[in-house]
Fold Methionine ABC transporter ATP-binding protein.
Amino acid sequence: MISVQHVKKIFPAKSEEVVAVKDVNLEIKEGEIFGIIGYSGAGKSTLIRMFNGLEMPTEGSIYIEGKDITRMKESKLRLARQEIGMIFQHFHLLWSRTVYGNIAFPLEIAGIPKKERDERVRELIQLVGLEGKENAYPSELSGGQKQRVGIARALANKPKVLLSDEATSALDPDTTDAILDLLVDINKKLGLTIILITHEMHVIKKICHRVAVMEKGKIVETGPVLEVFKHPEQPVTKRFVGQVTDAEDMKETVGRLLEKYQSGKIVKLTFVGEVAEEPIISTLIQKQLIVVNILHGNISHTRHGAYGTLFIHMDGKEEEVRNAIQFLLSRQIGVEVIEHV
Ligand SMILES: Nc1ncnc2c1ncn2[C@@H]1O[C@H](COP(=O)(O)OP(=O)(O)OP(=O)(O)O)[C@@H](O)[C@H]1O
């Protein structure tokens, strides 16, 4: 549905030009929730803004349903933009208009008659769960409610694609989850394709089907979310996966334990899919002649199954510890012996 081909964006500057996006290629399917993750300055905003012509690439093409939006005349681009809604971190609402007025605004611009407009706004208010708030002004709303207005406004002209530029980054964790649930809901109900950029792996894990990792203007890794969790290849991807699988203080704890336990091994186990729900550790203790000390555990639920990590210390005779590792490997569990942090 969306094809990004050899896209490059250079910003001219007095001293040295900035190459914000370097030869990006992506294929995004209809109805997919596709996440682009990267640290600040990676080029995510520049890339997503090129999907609706807010920025134009210096080189390359972006096809949306077969039409190259980078080569459209302004009048055609304006029409094409109605097919692509966008939501923002800081909402970008009209402060002098009510919730109703904000959602009606793009319909007024599109020349939709009043009666039809009223109906559509009412539908949208219901869809995003803002019943009763029609006459409130943005200043009277919570962050989550403001983003609901942003989503309703973005959906007003029935777009096929929704672009989300860090839409939950200004929200607390519970509100973030509620907005992410809403995005999944509209993706399912409307079959809407969603492309989002974020610096939080939690967002990717919770709602995306596929992810692309961006670093210094390039896509360095891409794949289905669960696959990327299982086999992160690039160091930057490993850091992002670590955001949700490893506790902040884990490194310190493991460092201390490595010093404390002179015998045995500290291992990081990774479980994927159904294995994550099996009682592997109790079987391990029953079958192997080792002592197991559980240090830290975590299960993440992605759209395509569960992904678990567990740090344990296994103590016992060297051979028994080796057997235990073999047992775990035979159960399709990832085993990484931690030698140092
Ligand atoms: N209009 C502009 N003029 C010049 N340089 C720009 C412009 N917009 C972005 N850049 C530069 O392009 C690079 C990528 O910026 P971009 O905002 O796309 O990154 P990002 O991954 O979205 O980061 P953040 O999350 O901090 O916004 C940065 O070096 C930035 O300074």
Observations:
- The CA atoms of residues 85 and 154 lie 4 Å apart.
